[in-house]
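Progress report, Aim 2. The chain analyzed during this reporting quarter is listed below.
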Amino acid sequence: MLPYKTISDAEAALNRTLTFAETLWFNYSANKSDYFLYSHNILFLFLIFSLAPLPVVLFDLVRSSNFDRFKIQPKVKLSPSEMFACYKTVMKLFFLVVGPLQLVSYPSIKFIGIGTGLPLPSIWEMLMQLTVYFLVEDYTNYWIHRWLHCKWGYEKVHKVHHEYNAPIGFAAPYAHWAEILILGIPSFLGPAIVPGHMITFWLWIALRQIEAIETHSGYDLPWTPTKYIPFYGGC
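Predicted structure tokens for the chain:
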């Protein structure tokens, strides 16, 4: 919740006129608690898990030769009922694990210093922070993923994620509940090291999930942004 009652109060405190983005943020967030703003992540994740995989799911259903040439395992085809079963399981995990985890993790977000106030970060600042977040997540996720592929980690936890040998976008968060908790650590480390604004945190969570869906899509599309990141290797 912002400590200003009016835009004039905010401008007086900052000693300048609010930008257009800051005005929008003030009008939306001024009377909302920080906890409520943080909880927006639940809505964002639900929409991303539900909508982001749909384009490549459509590719799988249509099976046009224009897109089949980019499919990594072109001989494998999942039925609509199999895809929907995957989505239902993911939504079950979302409501039983991911959503509640978001709700109870707010004190840690507050502790590391994720803010909701003014001024808003510049585009450059957000890009630098997001770069750090992706680098930290990529490094720590790699080592945790390797551990999950050891005998105990795979048999007890990670094999659930590999039930879909030919992955689809919906299967990106398809995993054992313990794996969801464990792999939440790399996503949290970057913001813990370089805390930013809540908007940056929202954007980070959204981009990280979209990236995971893209790497599990089963397609190697030429226009995906990750192809232009030199060090990027996917999942």
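The chain has a mean pLDDT of 91. Residues 123-148 form the longest helix (26 residues). These observations will guide the mutagenesis work planned for the next reporting period.
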